[in-house]
Design goal:
With 160 residues, this protein is mainly alpha-helical. It contains seven helices and four strands.
Length: 160
């Protein structure tokens, strides 16, 4: 419920717009690492998913960061990378490497560098601004948590 609410708020209130020029710059940054049909993160497995580079629910980041809902924040990925990255900070995850079913995968430095350049160049267009972040943190999350708690107490309000 919370993730859906956050995505709705991001879509409704986000001010950053992803332009055709931004998309061309993104493609240029990743040009050297893109392999046709392969995950942009690992470059090994087949691309089967589309992943929010900056997760829309980054409330546990320090500081909290909420990825915006536009094409610029979407990265073609394999199921393994998408599931393993989940809602982790992408740069921390890339630097640490992927661990799945006990198998470690170290991302090549060239890939980490491309994503770092992408993040540095487009940070203001990838994450919600401070005003929207404050709305999510101070209003939306507490309201949603209160509603969830009320729903969880169904034994008190449900009539049979």
């Amino acid at each position: 419920m919370l993730n859906g609410l956050i995505k709705d708020l991001l879509s409704y209130f986000q001010s950053a717009q992803w332009t055709n020029e931004d998309e061309l710059n993104k493609q240029q940054i990743f040009k050297k690492i893109i392999v046709d049909g392969k995950c942009w993160y690992c470059g090994v497995e087949d691309m089967r998913d589309m992943d929010h580079f900056m997760p829309t629910n980054g409330r546990l980041f320090t500081p909290p960061m909420f990825g915006l809902e536009h094409q610029g924040n979407i990265i073609p990925s394999c199921k393994t990378c998408n599931a393993n990255k989940s809602n982790k900070n992408p740069m921390n995850w890339l630097n640490k490497g992927r661990v799945t079913k006990g198998k470690e995968f170290k991302f090549p430095q060239e890939r980490i560098d491309a994503f770092q350049l992408f993040f540095d160049k487009f940070k203001s267009k990838l994450i919600a601004d401070q005003d929207l972040t404050n709305i999510i943190i101070n209003q939306a999350i507490p309201k949603c948590e209160l509603q969830t708690k009320e729903l969880a107490d169904f034994e008190e309000w449900i009539e049979l």
